[in-house]
């Protein structure tokens, strides 16, 4: 009997273990950290052997195949050992893809992928299609393949997930944009990260679709070097002869061989330039799977945004508080600052992944009246911003960050949490950071 070992006991790992068990494999799951109670009970329910807070090597190195959580880097000693033994190490998504005939709509990009994923799912679900939501959002793809039958999956893919995929194919691939992120995982070589993102097109044939932002300089340069097999659906604000979604006279227009769809941009639920791109990409995907125009229009109008992404929290004494905790890279913060219509008090900081803050420098100088650095080590932020902004305050907790921001802001200003950094120095994750921000604001 083939032995499958799963490394990591979170959402993706537990789901992969259940699918492997249901496919009749000998399954063992191992996690260096503690496993959450809900995943333990899921593993127990399917009588899957597991261990936590350790990796017992003789139970792992005898695997025929290993399914690795995307959070575990390739450089981890155990992963290196597995590679040396020639053991196949794959991702949960790669594994799940083997056991379903459902159509895969996969979304990646440095920014906007969660919003676009949720939006595509919203459109397809409202149109009455049997659709699952998976990847970085929703339930694990493997668990849904094991326990459900869907015709479509909308899957958000990070570069880490794409790294572990070789045979998997997206029927519809969406690449929103590429800006530097996670360079600590890619030897600080931007091209490695770019290659990783382009894996979303691997194994595609002309029967498949590739939706991408036509004016992204990085994507443009890559397309000149690569031979993409799939049918291309570029989107852009300005129309070129190949553009399939664009804006003309304040109308969003989608024009493919099968469809001519138009709607006023003022009717879109998601406002702001970056969100217009997200709506174009989602509208194209829905058109390709033949969702009715009326249904697309309705869904683009009534979509509720994503928590922790430019989420309005409250107004206190005419000061608006906006939670953008999901902005874990500099480009996300750039989008947030660009969408602000008032002076801003900006809360930055956390675990710096080798960030280059020059991308937001002009916007900070133009719109930001005070900076609050919230992290255990704020030296990279000081190094860049000292002398450029008059008021800079250091804090070590969310409560202090909100108090200081409230004190520095004046009537009509916005306090924006858009940290540019990962959250692991002071918080469990970006959700925890965003929740703490919201509760501190509500306690003002």
UniProtKB/TrEMBL annotation:
InterPro entries: Mur-like_cat_sf, Mur_ligase_C, Mur_ligase_C_dom_sf, Mur_ligase_cen, MurD. It is found in: Cytoplasm. Its main location: cytoplasm. Keywords: ATP-binding, Cell cycle, Cell division, Cell shape, Cell wall biogenesis/degradation, Cytoplasm, Ligase, Nucleotide-binding, Peptidoglycan synthesis. Gene3D superfamilies: Mur ligase, C-terminal domain, Mur-like, catalytic domain, NAD(P)-binding Rossmann-like Domain. Pathway: Cell wall biogenesis; peptidoglycan biosynthesis. Residues 308-420 form the Mur ligase C-terminal domain. GO terms for biological process: cell division; cell wall organization; peptidoglycan biosynthetic process; regulation of cell shape. ATP binds at residues 109-115. Residues 107-285 form the Mur ligase central domain. One of its GO terms (molecular function) is UDP-N-acetylmuramoylalanine-D-glutamate ligase activity. It is an enzyme of class 6 (ligase). Its EC number is 6.3.2.9. It comes from the Bacteria. It catalyses: UDP-N-acetyl-alpha-D-muramoyl-L-alanine + D-glutamate + ATP = UDP-N-acetyl-alpha-D-muramoyl-L-alanyl-D-glutamate + ADP + phosphate + H(+). Belongs to the MurCDEF family. PANTHER family: UDP-N-ACETYLMURAMOYLALANINE--D-GLUTAMATE LIGASE. NCBIfam families: murD (TIGR01087). Cell wall formation. Catalyzes the addition of glutamate to the nucleotide precursor UDP-N-acetylmuramoyl-L-alanine (UMA). This is UDP-N-acetylmuramoylalanine--D-glutamate ligase. It comes from Paludibacter propionicigenes (strain DSM 17365 / JCM 13257 / WB4).
């Amino acid at each position: 009997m083939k032995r499958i070992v799963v490394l990591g006991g979170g959402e993706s790992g537990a789901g992969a273990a259940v699918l492997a068990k249901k496919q009749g494999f000998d399954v063992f799951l191992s996690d260096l950290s503690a496993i959450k109670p809900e995943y333990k009970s899921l593993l127990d329910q399917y009588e899957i052997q597991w261990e936590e807070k350790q990796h017992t090597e003789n139970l792992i190195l005898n695997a025929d195949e290993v399914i690795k959580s995307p959070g575990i880097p390739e450089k981890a000693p155990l992963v290196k050992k597995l590679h040396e033994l020639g053991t196949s190490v794959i991702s949960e998504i790669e594994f799940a893809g083997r056991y379903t005939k459902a159509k895969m709509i996969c979304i990646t990009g440095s920014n906007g992928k969660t919003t676009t994923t949720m939006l595509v799912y919203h459109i397809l679900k409202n149109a009455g299609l049997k659709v699952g939501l998976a990847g970085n959002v929703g339930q694990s793809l493997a668990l849904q393949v094991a326990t459900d039958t869907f015709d479509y999956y909308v899957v958000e893919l990070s570069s880490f997930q794409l790294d572990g995929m070789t045979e998997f194919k997206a029927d519809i691939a969406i690449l929103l944009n590429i800006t530097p992120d996670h360079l600590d995982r890619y030897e600080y070589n931007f091209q490695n990260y770019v290659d990783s993102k382009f894996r979303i097109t691997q194994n595609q044939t002309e029967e498949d679709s590739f939706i991408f932002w036509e004016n992204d300089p990085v994507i443009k340069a890559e397309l000149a070097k690569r031979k993409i097999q799939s049918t291309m659906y570029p989107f852009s604000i300005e129309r070129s002869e190949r553009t399939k979604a664009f804006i003309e006279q304040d109308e969003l227009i989608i024009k493919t061989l099968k469809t001519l769809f138009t709607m006023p941009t003022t009717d879109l639920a998601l406002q702001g330039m970056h969100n217009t791109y997200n709506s174009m990409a989602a509208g194209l995907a829905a058109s390709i799977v033949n969702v009715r125009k009326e249904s697309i229009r309705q869904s683009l109008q009534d979509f509720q945004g994503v928590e922790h992404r430019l989420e309005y929290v409250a107004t206190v004494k005419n000061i608006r508080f906006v939670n953008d905790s999901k902005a874990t890279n500099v480009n996300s913060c750039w989008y947030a600052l660009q969408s602000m219509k008032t002076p801003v008090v900006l809360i930055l900081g956390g675990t710096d992944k080798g960030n280059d803050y020059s991308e937001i420098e002009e916007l900070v100088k133009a719109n930001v009246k005070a900076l609050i650095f919230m992290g255990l080590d704020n030296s990279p932020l000081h190094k860049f911003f000292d002398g450029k902004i008059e008021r800079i305050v250091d804090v070590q907790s969310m409560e202090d960050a909100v108090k200081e921001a409230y004190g520095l802001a004046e009537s009509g200003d916005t306090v924006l949490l858009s940290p540019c950094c990962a959250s692991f120095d002071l918080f469990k994750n970006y959700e925890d950071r965003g929740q703490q921000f919201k509760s501190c604001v509500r306690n003002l």
